[in-house]
Write a structure and sequence with these properties.
- Strands 1-2-3-4 form a 4-stranded mixed beta sheet, with no helix packed on it.
- The radius of gyration is 30 Å and the shape is elongated.
- The chain is built from 5 helices and 8 strands; from the N terminus they run βββααβααβββαβ.
- The protein has 2 domains: 86 residues, Orthogonal Bundle (Endonuclease III, domain 1), CATH 1.10.340.70; 54 residues, no CATH class.
- Helix 2 packs across helix 3.
- Helix content is 27%, strand content 24%.
- The C terminus is likely disordered.
- By secondary structure, it is α+β, with helices and mostly antiparallel strands.
Length: 168
């Protein structure tokens, strides 16, 4: 454990290895307890720091410094930051939107259809027809070289479509 620390020019450094086998260690300054609040202020509250959260502040501080219980102290400091607590939006999950589905609905009863021009594919397709079931949001896509009703009806009856499941 003591081999992880080095005294250089009267300053104590902690050695950090990304990989102990191949990499040279990096040295971070061991900070006396009395300077921890100043460092946390500089890396969290300072105008260029941007009031980053706990993990980002901790990651930035630990690249340069070491002090005991670093994560807990950063966590306590950020959680007690008045500006972060009053200005930060609370993480809210988006409310799911549910479409009205009739009690006696049948999938593919109500559909929407769209025809799109697309860039030419290697198979020379350059149009697609998109069907969307309004109740289930199930999507059916059919590529065409040139849209003709007869070609479409043949493909539809043979079910030569690409089925994509999508969610609202």
């Amino acid at each position: 454990m003591t081999s992880d620390f080095v005294l250089a020019n009267g300053l104590l450094f902690k050695l950090l290895w990304k990989c102990k086998v191949t990499d040279d260690p990096s040295m971070v300054l061991c900070v006396p307890e009395e300077y921890v609040p100043q460092i946390l202020y500089h890396y969290h509250d300072y105008i260029m720091s941007g009031h980053q959260g706990i993990v980002r502040t901790y990651s930035t501080v630990r690249e340069k410094f070491f002090f005991p219980n670093m994560f807990e102290k950063v966590q306590q400091y950020v959680r007690s930051c008045h500006l972060c607590q009053t200005m930060k939006a609370s993480p809210k999950l988006p409310v799911a939107s549910f479409s009205h589905i009739p009690v006696n609905f049948t999938p593919f009863d109500h559909m929407s259809m769209d025809i799109k021009d697309m860039p030419m594919s290697f198979s020379h397709y350059h149009k697609i027809i998109i069907f969307n079931c309004l109740a289930t949001q199930y999507t059916v896509v059919c590529p065409f070289v040139q849209f003709q009703l007869r070609q479409f009806l043949t493909a539809f009856s043979q079910r030569s479509f690409v089925f994509l499941e999508s969610h609202p």
